[in-house]
Amino acid sequence: MLERTRARRQALQMLYQREITGDPIARILAERSYALEDGEPTEYCQQIVQGVEANQEMIDAEIEKTSEHWTLSRMPLVDRNILRIAVYEIIFEDDVPNSVAINEAVELGKVFGGEDSSKFINGVLGRIAEKHEAVETKATEDAGE
């Protein structure tokens, strides 16, 4: 399994655990209470979970704005955490192409989500990526003026 793919799986498990237990990521990492199914958390996994936690309000707002007729509370727990990981990567990780973030999230949805998770995840992330790319293009054009 590729290193970043493994990191995303680990991050999904930690974010799921955080949501179920209410424990902050710092405690989960410090107490080593995470699943070791995919080994010790990688540096990139830690970067993802800490980034999602630090920026969750903005990430969640972006997901809710974009997912038509779905509030975060109505989304399956796994799906919303997969979306959080991918939105974090789309917005904050410049070295991760949007297509990679989306494809990885869709694959996580196929493995860990429900029957329609991958389609739902793909649709939401596609719209977020388009919007984010349009904002980046405009900022680049404005900076060039």
Task: Sum this structure up briefly.
This protein is mostly helical and 145 residues long. It has helices spanning 3-21, 25-31, 43-54, 56-66, 77-92, 98-112, 117-144.
Characterization of the model:
- The chain is an all-alpha fold and 145 residues long.
- It has one domain: N-utilizing Substance Protein B Homolog, Chain A (Orthogonal Bundle), CATH 1.10.940.10.
- It is built from seven helices and no strands.
- Helix 1 packs across helix 3, helix 5 (77-92) packs antiparallel against helix 6 and helix 5 (77-92) runs parallel beside helix 7.
- The relative contact order is 0.12.
- The model has no long low-confidence stretch (mean pLDDT 92).
Number of helices: 7
- Give the helix level as a range of percent: over 70%
Total beta strands: 0
* Count of structural domains: 1
Largest sheet: none
Strand content: under 5%
Net shape: globular
CA radius of gyration: 15 Å
Keywords:
mainly alpha, N-utilizing Substance Protein B Homolog, Chain A, 0% strand, globular
How would the blueprint of this fold be written?
Elements: H1 3-21, H2 25-31, H3 43-54, H4 56-66, H5 77-92, H6 98-112, H7 117-144
Helix pairs in contact: 1-3, 1-5, 3-5, 4-5, 5-6, 5-7, 6-7
